[in-house]
Amino acid sequence: MSCFDRNAGQWLLTEIAETPITPAAVACGGHREGVTVALAGPGGIHLANHGDDGFGVWRCLTSEPSNAVALGTGTAWRLRLAALVAGRAVAAQEGFTGDWAMGLTVL
Among 47, 49, 80, 98, which one is most buried in terms of CB atoms within 10 A? Predict the structure, then answer.
């Protein structure tokens, strides 16, 4: 993972992350406490938060094959996810406590 340091004017390597799948696509979304990284690949969609203490635990939203993922910030800093899972367009939204318990909704 890297980030652009505006003060230094360059990309800086912040951490090498061990991932649970080989990603076909990667997305990230910023929030108050850091960045959430989403991976899509043959092993599904996996999410992890990255903050001051490094990467948290990877969470699996689905184990169905996925080949595209995007993250955006919605109301109250809650992240929203859109992806292609097993040939279907899906969406999900982070809960107020940071969980993804609602799961994926087929669009």
Answer: 47
The 3-state DSSP class for residue 23 equals coil
Q: How far is CA 81 from CA 8, 86, 102, 103, in A?
A: 31, 16, 12, 10
Contact residues for 50 (Cβ-Cβ < 8 A; gap 6+): 1, 14, 15, 17, 34, 35, 36, 37, 56
* Secondary structure (3-state) at 75: helix
Contact between 32 and 81 (Cβ < 8 Å): no
pTM above threshold 0.85: no
Cβ neighbourhood burial of 12 (10 Å; 0-12, 13-18, 19+): exposed
d(CA 52, CA 101) in angstroms, rounded, equals 24
- How many other β-carbons are positioned within 10 Å of the β-carbon of residue 81? 23
